[in-house]
């Protein structure tokens, strides 16, 4: 099951099944390879991260603080999301029965990945796959899998004009900006390979997104719960990009048992949810985009990794993670992802770590004769 609508605005999605669906829909160019699936360890999130944990995802990362459970005063949005979580729990009867009481399997797997995998964010390169086969390739001593029909640019998005022309217009654009954030700064200070570089709001504003939209483009912007980041989208970025906000959606991260991955908190503290703003152009002909959605999923344990929002597989078959955009796009939408760490079919992906999570270390590959 990749995605199910539990109520009109509550959706459960299965990140792993969705990505695995891509790789089971196409054949490998290398005929000895049969299939690829995301490693199940990545989703082995069985208890909240603020429960007593073994080791954080990143060596030397700020330790999970002990919970002080004073009566928290939640803001309006947190209360709403918390209520939706209660509603979700009342629907969700299919929780997996697991015996583990910690996230060790996921955390140790990621610790090893960060320790062993090499990725040079300063290397500028680009590539793509215009075939209908999955390609396994080696670059800078690491192996990657590249899905069909995609192109990617490992580069700073501030150089967007170097690889996109004004004729490059997209039906769907997703951005997950590296919002300036104290936590990432601390993680990166301790372990260079775990955090990532950040951008200030002025630099984000400099991205010429307005050149790549048309009157039926949908833009999805991931945002933290920081009031200054929310404000930047609402007050500055949308105006600069000729967009208007039509939806505030929420991604609620839950354990395999359905609990939030950390406690709901007061404003300005860590929350188990993030926001996904949905915008269209100011002259958009698109109507009826749901203004609110609550998307529940078990997050990949890699820090800040988001579930894919739109996946197209095979020639004309569209498959949407939440089936939320189905009515709005052409049969084979042209998609753009900025600040990407993955690549997907029908996407142009740009970021300084654009292939990082396509590393085969994160996949279970099976050949015709054996599992690798
Ligand atoms: C929040 S993460 C994106 C996570 C991604 N959406 C995922 O699901 O895994 C932001 C990414 O942008 C990259 N980045 C930082 N500054 C950048 C820049 N100026 N241009 C392009 N990418 C940048 C970071 O290295 C990081 O990979």
Give a topology summary.
Elements: E1 3-5, E2 10-13, H1 15-25, E3 27-28, E4 33-38, H2 76-91, H3 104-116, E5 125-129, E6 133-139, E7 142-146, E8 150-154, H4 160-163, E9 172-175, H5 182-190, H6 201-205, E10 218-223, H7 227-240, E11 243-253, E12 273-281, E13 292-297, E14 310-312, E15 318-320, E16 335-338, E17 347-351, E18 363-367
The chain binds S-adenosylmethionine (SAM).
What does this protein structure show overall?
This protein has helices spanning 15-25, 76-91, 104-116, 160-163, 182-190, 201-205, 227-240; strands at residues 3-5, 10-13, 27-28, 33-38, 125-129, 133-139, 142-146, 150-154, 172-175, 218-223, 243-253, 273-281, 292-297, 310-312, 318-320, 335-338, 347-351, 363-367. It is α/β, with parallel strands linked by helices and 372 residues long. The protein has one domain (3-49, 80-93, 100-367): Rossmann fold (3-Layer(aba) Sandwich), CATH 3.40.50.150. It has an 11-stranded mixed beta sheet. The protein is globular, with a radius of gyration of 20 Å. The two termini are 25 Å apart. Mean pLDDT is 87; it is low at 53-67. The site of S-adenosylmethionine has 18 residues, from loops.
């Amino acid at each position: 099951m990749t995605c199910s609508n539990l109520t009109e605005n509550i959706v459960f999605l299965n990140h792993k099944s969705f990505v695995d669906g891509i790789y089971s829909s196409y054949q490998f160019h290398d005929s000895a390879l049969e299939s690829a699936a995301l490693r199940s360890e990545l989703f082995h999130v069985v208890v909240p991260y603020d429960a007593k944990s073994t080791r954080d995802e990143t060596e030397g990362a700020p330790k999970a603080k002990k919970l002080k459970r004073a009566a928290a005063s939640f803001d309006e949005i947190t209360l709403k999301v918390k209520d939706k979580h209660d509603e979700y729990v009342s629907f969700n009867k299919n929780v997996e029965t697991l015996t583990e009481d910690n996230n060790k399997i996921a955390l140790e797997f990621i610790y090893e990945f960060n320790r062993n995998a090499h990725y040079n964010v300063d290397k500028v390169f680009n590539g793509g796959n215009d075939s209908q086969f999955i390609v396994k390739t080696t670059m800078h001593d690491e192996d990657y899998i590249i899905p069909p029909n995609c192109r990617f640019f490992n580069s700073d998005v501030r150089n967007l004009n170097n690889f996109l022309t004004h004729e490059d217009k997209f039906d769907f654009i997703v951005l997950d900006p590296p919002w300036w954030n104290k936590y990432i700064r601390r993680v990166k200070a301790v372990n260079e390979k775990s955090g990532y570089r950040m951008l200030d709001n002025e630099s984000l504003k400099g991205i010429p997104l307005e050149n790549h939209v048309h009157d039926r483009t949908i833009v999805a912007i991931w945002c933290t719960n920081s009031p200054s980041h929310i404000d930047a989208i609402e007050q500055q970025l949308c105006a600069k990009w000729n967009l208007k906000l039509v939806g505030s959606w929420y991604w609620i991260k839950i354990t395999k048992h359905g609990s939030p991955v950390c406690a709901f908190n007061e404003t300005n503290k860590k929350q188990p949810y993030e926001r996904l703003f949905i915008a269209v152009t100011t002259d958009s002909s698109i109507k009826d985009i749901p203004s609110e959605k609550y998307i529940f999923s078990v997050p990949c344990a890699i820090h800040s990794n988001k579930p894919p929002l739109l996946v197209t597989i095979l020639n004309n078959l569209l498959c949407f993670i939440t089936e939320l955009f189905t009515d709005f796009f052409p049969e084979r939408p042209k998609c753009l992802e900025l600040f990407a760490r993955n690549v997907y079919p029908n996407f142009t992906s740009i970021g300084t770590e654009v292939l990082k999570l396509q590393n085969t270390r994160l996949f279970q590959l099976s050949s015709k004769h054996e599992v690798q």
